[in-house]
Here is the input.
Amino acid sequence: MAAVDRDILSKNIKPINYDLSLHHLELQRTFTYEGSVEIELQVKSPAKDIVVNAHELKIHHVHISAQDAEPQEASSISHDDKSQRTTFTFPRDIPASEAALLHIDFSGVMNNTMAGFYRSKYKPAVEPSNSVPTDGDSHLMFSTQFESCDARRAFPCFDEPNLKATFDFSIEIPEDLVALSNMPEKGVQESKKGLKIVSFDRTPLMSTYLLAWAFGDLEYVEDCTRRKYNGKPIPVRIYTTRGLKEQARFGLRNAWQVVDYFSEIFGIDYPLPKMDMLAVHEFPIGAMENWGLVTYRTTAILFDEQHSAAKYKNRVAYVVAHELAHQWFGNLVTMDWWSELWLNEGFATWVGWLAIDHLYPEFEVWSQFVTEAVQTAQQLDSLRASHPIEVPVKDAMEIDQIFDSISYLKGSSVIRMLSDHLGVEVFLRGVSDYLKAHAYGNATTRDLWTALSRASGKDVETFMDPWIRKIGFPVLTVAEEPGQIGVRQSRFLSTGDVKMEEDDVLWWIPLGLRSTQKAAGAATEALTSKEATIRDVDETFYKLNADQTGFYRTNYPPARLAKLGTQSDKLSTEDRIGLVADAAALAIAGEGTTGGLFTFMSELGQEKSYAVWAQMIVSLSNIRSVFADNEVVANGLKEFTLKLVSPATDNIGWDPKANEDYLTGQLRALLISTAGGAGHIATIDEAKRRFQRYISGEKEAIHPNLRLPVFRINVAEGGKGAYQAVKAEYLDTTSIDGQEICLQALGRVQTAELVKDFLDFQFSDAVKVQDVHSGSIALAANPKARDALWQYIKDHWDIVHQKLSGNSVVLDRYLKNSLQKFASHETEKDISRFFQDKDTKGFDRGLVQVSDTVRGNANYKERDEELVLGWLRTHGYTKA
Here is the structure.
């Protein structure tokens, strides 16, 4: 992307090194701090002005010295809030210099918005150290979150990814607290009474968004890599506030193994002398890959073998692998500009799954990937309001909204497609060449394609370019003729109304034909034209897109889909997931039928795979959500769901067997939750019995994996009493995952009174900003609560906005999750009307995606309501 497309700082001034010192931290009331930074600069040609990024800082004093020139103080300091830039103007020209020194004294605030340098509240697990700051009943820890553009909130800097520099850092803190940063501790010196100054070694060359520091009442668990780096193992630590470190053991076991694994497959040793990770009590996202000091929300790094739900084990393993992948892909080599964010996130997502498959083959992660990553990405990318993987970004204000399913999940899905085509070994060889060529620098998508083309001998850029630079993805429509099939590609939209001008992209589509006999090389062929014929196809069995490695949907003739439903023994787990997901999406778009989907799913009632069941239930839940307002259809769909899941639920039972595998435990939780929600009497009765024992103090009555389904069933069935009991559990739980589970369960309330009470609770101080969306995801998925949720947002917009708008990522996520389940044109218009006179900067793209989604749901409801009712009536699921 040409620089003219970006609003960036002057290329005349380049930072070389920052020497940053923070002191006079006020740890009660105002939470202010003083800072000084000396920035070594390369000044390429004489200049009177220097422009830096600064946001919510006060600049007190600025001077500069350059070789062979008298030092001079800034004659004026001007700030532009909108661009978050501060200009220092000097009396005389600063001469061209290789090592000018810019000195800035400033002050800032350790805020509570989870951006920049901020504070987090928590309740100590053990008696805290004497000097731990407090805020009301809570204690505090302090840490940073700089991606994408919030380093400028903590200190004045050149806050762009390709303005890399080295960093020296020191901080003054109470003597009984622990400070961390990217590099090892360099030294500690006494300061004023009760204080110490902790300094850290100089970092390698890196972007500002990867700088990090933290301090608090911290302890750690430690292990070391088994490989040696520069002759010795690397220490790997996970830090927590005191009393929680034992819950970091599982994350630690993954971390050192992943550092070694990536060092091997990338062919580049991990480049820093230590690898620290930190559990942060308030965190806006899942984790952040700061070089040498990765920060996490607690549920993404801590796991209690006795009390945590096993799904969090999967989460911890994956998030650790994802963040450690960034130590190479993102930190060592960084995207040139935010438009290529996908280079960081798409790759780290794919290679994170690769690492978990290496460590835990029993997790069957690639089937999970197809259910969670591919389908989530395709859901967003089937909207007109989607965006290309490589998306134009003009300035810092636009960046946060592209940290979404396209950058992460579509990015990783097309990398999986490409690596499958090239072969994983060849692909990783190209990646290694790319990393070596651009180490400690910045790179573009084209640089990656060049390295992969050299490694594979194939023109990667030509066939991958449309996948990266164009919006959307294709559906492959199949037409059958004796002994052969015709395939035609066209853009897929969930609204089913693609215009001719929107269907001008020619995608490279790997066909991946699975069959009992090979058809003229089609297993390795790719479709490179709008349509083609594949000859010698075995009519008894075939399936395109084997293992669902291609990022496209396939639309089979109805009879073929029904036949595939009877041939599951010939299909991989990923194949079956793909068939369910494609059939559901095509039904919603009007390119397939809901009845065809139901018939296909009916054949899968004997299914054993957790991931296939997860996809069936997600697809069914979406359809039930769309038709929730039609009582007859809704009841018929409930009966269909009940018939589908009852045999499997009865068979799996409530209690795990000895040495039961992870996926069986996940399937039990899923089936019990679904069966209970569909009215399975035995499941509801047993959930009530166990819940009563649990709230009476017999905590072992509910297995940790089953807390969410049991709580959900009881909140939905048990009225105010059960609701109050789960709310009390939220306030009292000491389990790391307990509060998240309670919020998800409380969203199943069935009355307007309890919806209002829950929403008031969500926006009270009892619920952290980072967690508010968890409850509203559940409310939005609940037909009895959805309208009340939207009404609450309208009636209490000032409260909602005030609590969530300190961090645009949080507000954008909340609104998308709260509003996208509607299936009414009137509600879509109401949402648009409500926000038309509001300042929506930071969540405007999300609102357009909400509108697109709701319109698609409404179109589907209008078009298929009678057809769905007809199928349900014909098959005996409704009498009306």
In short: The mean pLDDT is 95. DSSP finds 25 helices and 31 strands in the chain. The radius of gyration is 28 Å.
